[in-house]
Amino acid sequence: MVDLNEMGQKAKAAERVLGIAGEQQKNKALSLIAQGIYEQVDTVLKANEKDIETARQMGIAETMIDRLRLDEERVKAIARAVLDIMRLPDPIGEIEWGRTMENGMTIRKVTVPLGVIGMIYESRPNVTVDAASLCLKAGNTVILRGGKEAIHSNTAFANIMRQAIQKAELPADCVQLITDTTRESSTALMQLTDYLDVLIPRGGAGLIKAVVANSKVPVIETGTGNCHVYVDQFADLQMAARIVDNAKTSRPSVCNACESLLVHESVADTFLPMVKQLLDRSNVEIRGCEQTKAILGDCVVAATDADYATEFLDYVISVKVVDSIEEAIDHITQYSSGHSECIVTENLPNAEKFLNEVDAAAVYVNASTRFTDGGVFGFGAEIGISTQKVHARGPMGLKQLTSVKYIIVGNGQVR
Amino acid sequence: MVDLNEMGQKAKAAERVLGIAGEQQKNKALSLIAQGIYEQVDTVLKANEKDIETARQMGIAETMIDRLRLDEERVKAIARAVLDIMRLPDPIGEIEWGRTMENGMTIRKVTVPLGVIGMIYESRPNVTVDAASLCLKAGNTVILRGGKEAIHSNTAFANIMRQAIQKAELPADCVQLITDTTRESSTALMQLTDYLDVLIPRGGAGLIKAVVANSKVPVIETGTGNCHVYVDQFADLQMAARIVDNAKTSRPSVCNACESLLVHESVADTFLPMVKQLLDRSNVEIRGCEQTKAILGDCVVAATDADYATEFLDYVISVKVVDSIEEAIDHITQYSSGHSECIVTENLPNAEKFLNEVDAAAVYVNASTRFTDGGVFGFGAEIGISTQKVHARGPMGLKQLTSVKYIIVGNGQVR
């Protein structure tokens, strides 16, 4: 049994200092983190080399190893991202609302840090620095539990960050990394209710599901995106083809990529061959319903229910011909993960109906689902994209890493 | 094993209708609910009579039975509260933020219902109507699981509400009551992740703790209030005594009542006898530290650590003499449930220090903790007071029963 109570206590003690630290001091720590990463690129690359070697010895696939791999340019990009976070406005101490009450008391609603955040994530080592920097900027201390494949890289980054934070005269324990990467340590983190205010998992659907099922700490679900594009009978078909192609092929491995195409039957004959021509350029595999097969021929694999429920994260798309916008919305309601959904149409009532009735973090008319992103939305950076409705929905920036406190000042009022 | 999947499906199906219903239709349903309760007062009272009888037969204490008991006036007050909720502004469809992006797309952040809400609560039958009405006004369907002591009253209320909702041409399943009041049904509700967006427990510390420990659905913790008043060395002692007396005795059974008094040692000799004089009028039992005993004498019971951690909800107060504001803040940090905390002082730096460093939903200077309340804060009504930091903190009104959706409209933009 892994005991994380001591880490929890340290995180909470550090939070009492960090939570009330000013903008300048937090920025100083972030600036020193970036500087430390620049200065210790070699240390990071050596640690990363060990991770890569271990991964090779364990026979891990090259695509996975590529996610792990850092080079000088990548490390410097990670440092630059820290400076970008530093330059964002401090989300803490904002008076969101206030008034003087009838009895003369004043009340203010002020943003405060969430507190102690747990992060469970998979292989990419940049998450270690990204997540810790966002937490720090919002006054939160963090306990990181990264994947075992990246343990050497993560440890190198954590050491650099802790040194930098201490140099800025904040407690090093603002950032802690769990170096035990057994399943037990991740379970222990999910039970750390006395110390953690929230747990944010970041990774594949399997990880997210396991954390949601097992955590006793409040969880913010992120990232699973079974995103649909519905091509309406009133669509501009050229536009629709461009949007589907972009949403599917511009970066298939990300959560805002399109996984499923729904086409109104009255335009399917014309549209499906058009979109296939674009998708063929990227060798996208099409898994379609009977009608799709009838129109596009034998190149189409028969789609199963499981296909409609799958986030492929690959050059694969499921396709279904529907007889109405209602059927499209029903299908989306059944299979959507609540991430990003799109209708392509020139018809205003249909656009409004879709926007109204589809329940997802982001709903689009005539634009690619690929835009769902904290940077694009203007939040500066994101710690993940929430697909739940409690606390935060959609891209989570600094603001979503805060809570509030009511401050009431009186002169003896009683009730 | 209780199977709530069918209820979950019905709640979700009803939510697809209620979630996009307009303000007028929701208000019509609420108006008909109030009317139905007025018209069927007798039915409600007969049902309540059965609950009271059963409670008597089971030998339940009279104070508990009083919580259960309805009379004509109480039932009418419940109906009036529904009309108050009806008159609040609709929290759904508000555009919280929006902009036109560089590429010409428009983005809007719009408030939407949370979705399907589970409520687990104890004896008071008014919660059945209050909670359901708040959920309905914010476009949420609700599955209610009340205590077994109130099952007949709750069933009568639920029937009236379902009839009214149907008359307003909304699905009756917007409000569902679990009539099985075994522990199994409450466990099943906590596992209903496919259908529930959030679970809100309302009741004593034991209930809240059990739900937080066992729920797989996101929970919003409410109501536990181990609230402190700290009387600083720079306090106006007359004011301090009035505030402590009000916070302790005006309604000891509620969560914003004061449970613990901290007094700076330099004023303890003068202040403790002063405050005791006021508390004596309500026969408040004092459990104090050694110094408190030395000052007030043998009437003081020796306080244990458990006393400092206890929400008495009764005419009992724990008292500790501290040597500094720092010791007061440390004590509060250790024992507070994060509800409401107060400092009485005329010293500005100490007031600011306390406001800054004490981590609670509401922090007071020179006013009674009893003011922490959705009605007092101007939210119109409240479904509970959140003591967690995720999603909502402090009194939860209609706004806290909403989520958001991003709506993006373009004309063919791709990334």
Features:
homodimer; 415 residues; alpha/beta; Aldehyde Dehydrogenase, Chain A, domain 1; Aldehyde Dehydrogenase, Chain A, domain 2; 2 domains; 7-stranded parallel β-sheet; 4-stranded parallel β-sheet; 15 helices; 16 strands
Brief sketch in words of this structure:
The structure is a homodimer of 415-residue chains. With 415 residues, the first copy, chain A, is of the alpha/beta class. The first copy, chain A, is built from 15 helices and 16 strands.
Protein architecture, described:
Two copies of one chain form a homodimer. With 415 residues, the first copy, chain A, is of the alpha/beta class. Chain A has two domains: 5-221 and 388-409, Aldehyde Dehydrogenase, Chain A, domain 1; 227-371, Aldehyde Dehydrogenase, Chain A, domain 2, CATH 3.40.309. Helix content of chain A is 43%, strand content 21%. The mean pLDDT of chain A is 96. The interface between A and B is large, with 67 and 67 residues. Strand 13 (362-367) of chain A pairs parallel with strand 16 of chain B.
Number of helices of chain A: 15
Could you report the average pLDDT of chain A, rounded to the nearest whole number? 96
Strand elements of chain A, count = 16
What structural class is derived from the secondary structure elements of chain A? alpha/beta
Shape of chain A: globular
The overall number of domains of chain A is 2
For CATH, the homologous superfamily of the largest domain in chain A is named as Aldehyde Dehydrogenase, Chain A, domain 1
Name the helicity range of chain A. Answer: 40-55%
CA gyration radius of chain A, whole angstroms: 24 Å
Q: Major beta sheet of chain A, specifics?
A: 7 strands, parallel
Strand order of the largest sheet of chain A: 10-9-11-8-7-12-13
Termini gap of chain A = 50 Å
